[in-house]
Amino acid sequence: QVQPVESGGGLVQAGGSLRLSCRASGPTRYAMGWFRRAPGKEREFVAAISWAGSTYYADSMKDRVAISIDNTSNIAHLQIDNLRPEDTAVYYCAAGYGLGTMAANYNYWGLGTQVTVSS
Asked: Exposed e or buried b for every residue in 80-111, given b needs 16+ CB within 10 A?
């Protein structure tokens, strides 16, 4: 069973940066995606990357985020800059065999990491 594990969340002041990481176990090369759920809101797509390096970004965040992948260890990183209070959410990592912006594209999900941005 593949269980993505997120790390790197925490409390940060507005304008700051965070780097989230996600490790997917196993030898298979997965596409990796990041989603988030803010309090009282639906889950939304943030960014995704294929094992070959193709990327997708949510239009609302593409100027502030960067996703990368280390294929040798199946670890994906999400860099978020210029954080805003509205970025406060639980950030979820997902791994799958297909790349896309929809949750249904992914087969395995992490438990999430909390990001809180103070004003």
From this structure: beebeeebbbbbbbbbbeebeeeeebbebbbe
Residue 61 half-sphere exposure, CB side, CA atoms within 13 Å? 23
Residue type at 114 in one-letter notation = Q
- C-alpha to C-alpha distances, 96 to 61, 75, 87, nearest whole angstrom: 22, 13, 25
62-114 confidence digits (pLDDT tens)? 999 999 998 888 899 999 999 999 999 999 999 998 889 999 999 999 999 99
**Other C-beta atoms lying within 10 Å of the C-beta of residue 48:** 27
Q: Which of 2, 36, 21, 35 is nearest to 76 (CA)?
A: 21
pLDDT tens by residue, 6-53: 999 999 999 999 999 999 987 778 899 999 999 999 999 999 999 889
